[in-house]
Specification:
- With 139 residues, the protein is an all-alpha fold.
- Among the domains are: 32 residues, no CATH class; 41 residues, Regulator of G-protein Signalling 4, domain 2 (Orthogonal Bundle).
- It is 55% helix and 3% strand.
- The radius of gyration is 17 Å and the shape is globular.
Length: 139
Amino acid sequence: MPGFFFSHSNMTEFNGKEDCKHAEGKIHKKKQKAFGVDLKNYLKCMVPHIESGIKTSNSKNVMLSTEEVIQWSQSLEKLLASQSGQGVFREFLKSEFSEENIEFWLACEDYKKTKSDHLHGKAERIYKEFVQSNAIKQV
């Protein structure tokens, strides 16, 4: 899986709330942009709120360190390796109307850890929920 790489120097160039508003406004535009750029802007918008905690849609107040967010900006693998990173990534995907992507990834990760006698049932559930042509959360 390819990683996303962002320079750390850009974190200091962030202008706070104005850039966040600008980034949030872009979410609603139908412009085609690189996924990595959107994720980078989303992570940048989090930086001013890290000290006070970030509230996710499931009402958890998540405390993050700046170092942790910078680590996430280095690669998608580092982001997904962290529980709080997965939560933040889920929030980003919700804002992009594509939350089913992380749900599919989590289902596949769970499948990898499954014992052989339960594989068929989980594979069938993944197929019905994410893969078949009329799936509710088709990816």
